[in-house]
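for the recovery benchmark. tokens below, seq after
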């Protein structure tokens, strides 16, 4: 995922609009952006950064600010979760498309900001609002899908509650990274460099377990893109075993794995340099 440097619109020194896609790429996608360890989602590295300059080109022809583009990203994320309220395969397919679109717009807000040379904490804040709220709403929507329509209380409350529990675990897991930044700032420590050595656990056993997790990266299943892909795959399975049953199987698998990811993330932080002076 990108972390845009947004703010009020300022005309760059080299002109209000790029003269070519190559020029736009050079300014909006510098190596320090493409090489970020934590801020670049795999879909961005794989294909979205190849597409995003074309959408950014169109956005730069309008008066929309980088924060405005982030607002579009937030609305697209909410629409992704809302699409899951459409039962069956159709809702899952629409959510899959919207989830990809959200990540594409997420690439563009930072590109607009870098081209126009705008920067403010508001942009980073709005970006986090978008990802936190989208992933929370997707988990809740999955719980509603698993409960089926119409609800037959109290039996179906189990599934809506599991969806809400999944949303809570996802938010807590994401918040751990923010807690690290707050703790370091309050302790007067500098911002962590975005390098593997700064984040790697120093304890031998934890380091080995972390390396294993790179081969079985279930902890990455809880971003909006991965969640919508999983829900879509299980919607295909649902064509054969029933939509509601497929959603329930997925939800039952995601909750304990999310809890394990949360615990592992906490242990990895405590075993790394991130919270040490």
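predicted aa per position
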């Amino acid at each position: 995922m990108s972390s845009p440097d947004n703010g009020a619109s300022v005309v760059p020194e080299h002109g209000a609009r790029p003269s070519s896609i190559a020029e736009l790429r050079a300014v909006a996608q510098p190596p320090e952006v493409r090489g970020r360890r934590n801020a670049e989602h795999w879909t961005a590295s794989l294909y979205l950064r190849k597409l995003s300059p074309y959408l950014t080109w169109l956005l730069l022809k309008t008066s929309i600010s980088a924060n405005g583009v982030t607002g579009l990203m937030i609305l697209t994320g909410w629409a992704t979760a809302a699409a899951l309220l459409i039962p069956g395969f159709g809702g899952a397919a629409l959510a899959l498309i919207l989830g990809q679109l959200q990540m594409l717009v997420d690439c563009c807000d930072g590109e607009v900001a870098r081209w126009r040379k705008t920067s403010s904490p508001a942009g980073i804040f709005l970006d986090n609002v978008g990802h936190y709220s989208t992933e929370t709403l997707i988990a809740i929507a999955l719980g509603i899908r698993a409960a089926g329509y119409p609800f037959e209380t109290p039996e179906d409350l189990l599934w809506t509650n599991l969806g809400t529990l999944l949303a809570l675990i996802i938010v807590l897991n994401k918040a751990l990274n923010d807690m690290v930044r707050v703790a370091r700032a309050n302790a007067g420590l500098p911002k962590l460099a975005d390098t593997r050595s700064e984040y790697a656990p120093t304890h031998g056993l934890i380091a080995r377990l972390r390396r294993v997790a790179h081969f079985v990266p279930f902890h990455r299943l809880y971003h909006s893109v991965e969640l919508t892909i999983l829900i879509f795959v299980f919607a295909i399975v649902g064509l054969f075993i029933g939509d509601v049953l497929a959603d329930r199987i997925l939800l039952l698998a995601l909750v304990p794995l999310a809890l394990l990811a949360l615990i592992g993330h906490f242990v990895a932080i405590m075993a790394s340099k991130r919270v040490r002076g």
